[in-house]
Design brief:
alpha/beta; TIM Barrel; binds glyceraldehyde-3-phosphate; EC 5.3.1.1
């Protein structure tokens, strides 16, 4: 089972312009020799760094994205960023529905759906993040929660958009300094649920959507996660924020994957 592997990071509300550009340039130069046929690298920095990042980083090696986006092109939406504004920067992707957007800022599945449709309409690769809370996990309803987030998130999205869709599974309880990483077995089980649901939504084409795991990915668990059959990549926060450490995590994971599945 040989497939392209995805590695990316969300920089959240960290790093100023200078630090972001340096991080991206270092990451590109460190990872340049890794074939982009085998590995997709993407980074999602803060809004204020994006213009400098797009101008100063070799985009053939790293895709750049935004952490959120409004569903409207323009209007009376103080504090929001329009898809047209992001297009002006020439970004590759938008992330929709990150756990912190849903749980700190109260975004709903229906809002994520509007954003997903806007992202796709404007030609961005659209990364929808989903994941259950600890309480939902304890009630034993994780599959139902994930299926709801996918079914609402992709409501009315035509199958022709599949090539532009990515999904990240990030259980809320696994994210950040207080998070507990999902075990590889549990992550695999949930990825299977997600992949089955994508087939239901998009038919056979749904199988082409990459599904990434995120939530306390670190050098100690990345290798075991990446070899799970239904995990297509790792969406990493803290463990990716130093270019040399992220480069090592990627290389080790790819080596482990190749040892298991062949060159
Ligand atoms: O977007 C990334 C996730 O929130 C994961 O963050 P983390 O790896 O620091 O837990």
């Amino acid at each position: 089972m040989k497939k392209k592997l995805y590695f990316g990071s969300n920089l959240k509300m960290y790093k100023n312009i200078q630090d972001t550009v340096k991080y991206l340039q270092d990451l590109v130069s460190l990872t340049k020799d890794i074939s982009r046929e085998e590995m997709e690298l993407f980074i999602i920095p803060s809004y204020t760094t994006l213009e400098s990042a797009t101008k100063n980083v070799d985009r053939s090696y790293v895709k750049l994205g935004a952490q959120n986006m409004c569903w409207e092109d323009e209007g009376q939406f103080t504090g929001e960023i329009s898809p047209l504004m992001l297009k002006e920067l020439g970004l590759d992707l938008v992330m929709i529905g990150h756990s912190e957007r849903r749980h700190v800022f109260g975004e709903t599945d229906a809002e994520e759906n509007r954003k997903v449709k806007a992202g796709l309409k404007h030609g961005f690769t659209t990364l929808l993040c989903i994941g259950e809370t600890a309480e939902e996990k304890n009630f034993g309803i994780s599959p139902e929660v994930l299926r709801t987030q996918l079914k609402v998130g992709f409501h009315d999205v035509p199958v022709s958009e599949v090539p532009h869709i990515w999904v990240a599974y990030e259980p809320v309880w696994s994210i950040g300094v207080n998070g507990t990483p999902a075990s590889p077995d549990y992550a695999e089980e949930m990825h299977k649920v997600i992949k089955e649901c994508l087939l239901e939504i998009f038919g056979d084409a749904g199988a082409d959507i990459p599904v990434l795991y995120g939530g306390s990915v670190n050098p100690g668990n990345a290798n075991e996660l990446i070899v799970q059959p239904s995990i297509d990549g790792l969406f990493t926060g803290r463990a990716a924020w130093q270019a040399d450490k992220f480069d090592k995590l990627i290389r080790d994971a790819m080596k482990t994957y190749k040892e298991k599945y062949g060159e």
